[in-house]
């Protein structure tokens, strides 16, 4: 219950308080009505052109109070008349104002009851705290979608603090907080914190899988948190077995869920179990229309075929063809919402063309990859160098190896391959310098010693130095022992 105190409202200076005979209720009513009329007249005089034709707030409140008192006196008078059975004047009524025993000057005040302030009502509103938590959750999720992960974590943590101290906590609110804060932690590379939030939500849902959405504002299911946690385990923490455990649990509670089926297939591909991975991916692709990121699934299918072809000594072109087909579909399905980097697909398309000896198509793809693509740009430059080499355009290949050495000056393979290009052009001195650099960067690579030995022995007539390189190559790799 709200208790309101009694306050006094001052009458305007030009409106005198009614002087009444307090023993005569009729006189009191008449005097109060005169005061009301005076107030209304005064308010109407002060209305300007900019004001609406209404009483100002202070006058309105005073008139309302006076009118209420008139009504009280009349009701009291009626009750007394009914009680005595007569219409004659009743006994003196002192309920309007209690007159002090000692006469005092009449002051222009009248007793009124104030309207309670909104803030007072808010303090007693049983839903105010819930509304505050909801507002913070919406704010935090909006910050997350705006890629402001640090602020999202701060806002959602505040929401969690408020929710945990409430007498009646809402699982619905807790799940939404854990979902968005966990994902925000991922954006900040705080993967262990993300795992912690997802695990709290998973425990909550396992304990009560039929959580009722009390407020019907948010709705999260167990498989969503298991899938997010599996992604962190798989792609960020390299905890493949934990990721597999989560994905298998999803497929128990949601049999055939395409996103989980695809994720499991991708996991098997990463574990180099290509055939198993392909089987799982094919199951998922039966529902490719409802997969969240079909481009990534098709990319993984292509990666499985590509890896099978690369790992097999007797691989035919069929795996490269199937890889290329999957990569092209992935490229066509890709959009800005995909978790996959666009140029990862382009890179694999280029290399598939290269492996199939479709060199012109490989070149056209590699040249599309910009320098901003980072490692994929470097891979594309390497692909162009190989393409030009296969086409016999050795001078162009040398230019690409020059660029690769600038991009990565510590990788021995680039000067080693550039040496081969110099050999093809008959520049033995330049080739020798590149083999020297390659051996300096990678002293345990047998082919560098063997190739340098060949140049020294057969091109520069330095047989004794060439023999030393042959022997070194033989010690590093028995394959070269009978090659000279």
Distance N terminus to C terminus?
Answer: 104 Å
SSE arrangement, N to C: EHHEHHHHHHHHHHHHHHHHHHH
Query: Can you tell me the CATH architecture of the domain at 128-254?
Result: Alpha Horseshoe
pLDDT < 50 stretches: 1-10, 48-55, 85-124
CATH class identity of the domain at 128-254: Mainly Alpha
CATH topology of the domain at 128-254: Serine Threonine Protein Phosphatase 5, Tetratricopeptide repeat
Please summarize the sheet with the most strands.
2 strands, antiparallel
Estimated radius of gyration? 43 Å
Strand order of the largest sheet: 1-2
Total strand segments: 2
How many helices does DSSP assign? 21
Task: Give me the CATH superfamily of the domain at 128-254.
Answer: Tetratricopeptide repeat domain
Mean of residue pLDDT?
Answer: 81
Beta-strand content: under 5%
Helix coverage percent: 55-70%
Helix/strand/pairing class, anyone? mainly alpha
What is the molecular shape? elongated
């Amino acid at each position: 219950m709200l208790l309101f105190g009694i306050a006094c409202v001052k009458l305007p200076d030009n409106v005198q308080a009614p002087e009444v005979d307090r023993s005569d209720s009729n006189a009191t009513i008449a005097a109060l009505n005169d005061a009301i009329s005076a107030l209304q007249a005064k308010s109407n005089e002060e209305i300007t052109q900019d004001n609406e034709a209404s009483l100002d707030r202070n006058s309105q409140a005073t008139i309302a109070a006076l009118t209420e008192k008139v009504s009280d006196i009349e009701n009291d008078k009626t009750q007394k008349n009914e009680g005595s059975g007569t219409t004659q004047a009743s006994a003196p009524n002192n309920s309007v104002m209690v007159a002090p025993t000692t006469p005092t000057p009449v002051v222009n005040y009248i007793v009124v009851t104030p309207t309670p302030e909104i803030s007072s009502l808010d303090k007693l509103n049983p839903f105010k705290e819930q509304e505050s938590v909801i507002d913070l959750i919406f704010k935090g999720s909006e910050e997350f979608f705006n890629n402001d992960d640090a602020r999202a974590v701060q806002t959602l943590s505040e929401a969690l603090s408020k929710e945990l101290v409430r007498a009646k906590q809402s699982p619905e609110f807790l799940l939404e907080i854990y979902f968005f804060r966990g994902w925000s932690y991922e954006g900040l590379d705080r993967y262990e914190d993300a795992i912690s939030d997802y695990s709290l939500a998973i425990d909550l849902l396992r304990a009560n899988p039929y959580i009722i959405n009390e407020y019907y504002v948010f709705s999260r299911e167990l498989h969503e948190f298991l899938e997010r946690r599996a992604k962190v385990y798989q792609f960020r923490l390299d905890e493949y077995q934990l990721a597999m455990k989560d994905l298998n649990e999803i497929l128990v509670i949601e049999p055939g869920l395409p996103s989980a089926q695809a994720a499991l297939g991708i996991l098997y591909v990463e574990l180099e179990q290509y055939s198993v991975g392909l089987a799982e991916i094919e199951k998922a692709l039966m529902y490719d229309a409802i997969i969240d990121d079909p481009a990534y699934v098709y990319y993984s299918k292509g990666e499985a075929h590509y890896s099978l072809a690369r790992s097999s000594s007797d691989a035919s072109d069929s795996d490269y063809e199937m890889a290329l087909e999957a990569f092209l579909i992935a490229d066509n399905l890709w959009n800005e919402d995909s978790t996959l980097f666009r140029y990862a697909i382009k890179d694999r398309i280029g290399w598939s063309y290269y492996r199939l000896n479709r060199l012109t198509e490989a070149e056209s793809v590699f040249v599309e990859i910009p320098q901003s693509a980072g490692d994929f740009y470097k891979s594309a430059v390497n692909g162009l160098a190989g393409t030009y080499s296969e086409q016999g355009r050795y001078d162009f290949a040398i230019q690409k190896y020059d660029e690769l050495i600038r991009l990565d000056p510590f990788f021995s393979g680039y000067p080693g391959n550039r040496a081969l290009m110099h050999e093809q052009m008959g520049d033995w001195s330049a080739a020798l310098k590149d083999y020297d650099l390659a051996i300096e960067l990678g002293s345990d690579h047998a082919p560098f010693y063997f190739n340098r030995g060949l140049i020294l022995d057969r091109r520069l007539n330095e047989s004794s130095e060439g023999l030393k390189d042959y022997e070194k190559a033989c010690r590093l790799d028995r394959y070269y022992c009978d090659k000279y």
